[in-house]
Task: structure prediction
Amino acid sequence: MVKAEIQNVKLRFGIIGNTDGLNRAIDIAMQVAPTDLSVLVTGESGVGKESFPQIIHQFSRRKHGPYIAVNCGAIPEGTIDSELFGHEKGAFTGAISDRNGYFAEADGGTIFLDEVGELPLSTQARLLRVLETGEYIKVGSSKVQKTDVRIVAATNVNFADAIAEGRFREDLYYRLNTVPIKVPSLRERPDDIALLFRKFASDFAEKYRMPAIQLTDDARRLLTSYSWPGNIRQLKNITEQISIIETNRDISADILKNYLPAQPEPGYPALLGIRSGEKKFESEREILYQVLFDMRRDVTELKKLVHGILAERNGGGGAAPVQDQAALHYLQTPSVSMIQDPTIVVNAPSVTPVSPAMPSEGVVSPVKVTSPNVKVAPRVMSEVQDTEEYVEENLSLDDVEKEMIRKALERHHGKRKNAANDLKISERTLYRKIKEYGLD
Result:
């Protein structure tokens, strides 16, 4: 019985697919529809989140009331409050008359806030009041208005990150997320990909009055194995392109490859050199830390290598020539260039030792290092240091992060806002890190 109801909903709202994740999302939407609970629909861009607020509205007691869909990400920040809550005449330049907002127009019905994660913080505070009390105030007014609206929101934003960075209110998140609905991505629905392609091919054949395209077996396997970062929207666009451009209506894998963008390597798409079994990284900061660790390890190996070469040249005893001691001294305190591009992974360096026969006139020639991220600069020698004993240096994640924050604050003369922008983190996170590391 339940399956029959879900199938009827799919037919009514044009939803295609039979995977468990999709059926579960539809079932939750039907179960929560008769209530007035707030619903948060999450999922990647292009998965079809917009169908679920319509299901909730049509199966609710508000189905005869208005249904308004608002794309929060498409409304400028300066006018979003006026659009949602309305304004009084003269509230701002251009407000030549009173205007009702979407919450007034949707009274007794349902309002769908798409891309709710893009709302500015000031608007989030107003929205929280509507959710808690059903009250709002027009822009430029002091009179409290009441509204009876069912709110369904959707987003592809990672709320955990947005809350941690101070871009979204945590209390508003819990108010919106009373009932969560997760719409699966297309790569989580491999059995539905061929069905969707066939439906889109049929629709475009009818639209453009041409025979429908069909996939060969190898093309079907390629279609199913592709990752589809743009989800259903990307699949639909590619189907339309092929339908219009290709004269051959039987589409092989070779033809299909011309329309599929190259897939990134598994793991973080910009990180090179990851081997199977190695750690995958969640953020650019982790990648930068790992690159710094790799650099330090390469410099450590370089020190060991040069030390071994010098020891072998001197027959295991006696002092090394001045040039060799100075060259090793450079490596003990190398000048390492900061990496601007975290996608470059340091390769194992090779070393060409300095010949003791080379002339020295107070300036020592540098050791040649082929690693692209390690630079050793020549310098004037004031004294020769004993380098027979080698000490390995360690570097922790906290040390790296503390040093990066300290240097950013110095660069911007203590201005935390500019330092946060430089570090690509929020001011709130920077304040917490400054307190944590005692950098006040």
About this structure: DSSP finds 17 helices and eleven strands in the chain. Residues 266-282, 334-393 have pLDDT under 50 and may be disordered.
